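For the sake of transparency, this paper describes our internal protein records without simplification. The remainder of this section carries one protein's record, kept here as part of the documentation:
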Amino acid sequence: MLSAAIILAILAGAAVQLVPAVRSSRLWRATVTPLASIIGSGFLILGPVMSASFGAWAPLAMLALCALAWAFGWAIRYNIACRETGLSHMPATLEIIASWSLAFSYIISVTYYLNLLGAFGVRLTPFDDQTSARILTSIVLLAVLIIGWWKGFRALEALERISVGLKLSIIAGLLVGLAIVFGDRAGAGELAFNAPKETGWGAVTLLFGLIVTVQGFETSRYLGEAYDARMRISSMRLAQAVSTLIYVLYIGLFSYLFSVSELKVTETAIIDLIGLVAPVLPLFLIAAALSSQFSAAVADTGGSGGLFQEVTRGLFSEKRAYVLVGACGLVLTWAANVFQIISYASRAFALYYGLQAAIAAVAAWRQAQKVHALMFGLLAILGIAITILGVPVEGD
């Protein structure tokens, strides 16, 4: 009965996305890109990580993480609006530094996505170990590099659209399955209220190290060729609102279903835990993981190449950037574990968000919006603090 409900929810999620009114909606098309990026990998790791680290307080911690992302998104939305009215208020030097920061952030995020792909790719095979996962990651990383070098990524755009739809549909099934089991256990008085493992300053710095799991909203800023500023601002706001709802609901249901002894913090812990909820879910999650992580890696590799070419004014071509992505990715893959890479990516994106907040602060000050300038300035300081202080999750 539970498996049937989950499958029906997945099919319903897919059907909704095929409705002509949804497919033809410009706002929805503009929202899908940042939404898919935000929830692309977070839902694979956040359940076990947040539950094990924050116990019964996990939903509140998740809400705080989403609120932090919303604040940085506010700064970027402000910058989008300023650019629409003219560039006279925008600090050019900070813009260039921010672009460099984002280009290098993409390198780390590509490695993060493909390391998750490697871990999930070997999860249900006889080769479920770190070395095999790293080998698979390296092979896929080289494949992405070769595709980008010889053919470009336009041929893979259809895969990205398919993976987005698949991912959203499977998340719908996951939430329905969790809700049913949550309701059953609540009725039987069997919910688990675990004590937090992380408290105080340790909890704060751990959240800092997880910001990459709610990253992706900034992609709306780079959709200028297809959408005007108003649409990009609306799409970012909607994507962050929907992802916050999904994440808080997901963590709110997940965190009370498992005891401390059941919660293991590994890259693929979600597979074992969700298998306890519904045996049909692990295969769906692995399918979503493989398709979404590959498409996200392709998108960020392409984005990094374009940014490097832009900030160097053509001196560093996209193809050379792909080689840089591949080389750095291989080094990170074999030198660090997934949770360390997540922390590196979080800190890199925090630097970018801090720079965007600094840009917003300068622009607001030049327009005599002193309250905005102060708030954006505080956000900029927070972004730098996260870059310095974010710590990785300690896996089991």
Q: What stands out?
A: The chain has a mean pLDDT of 86.
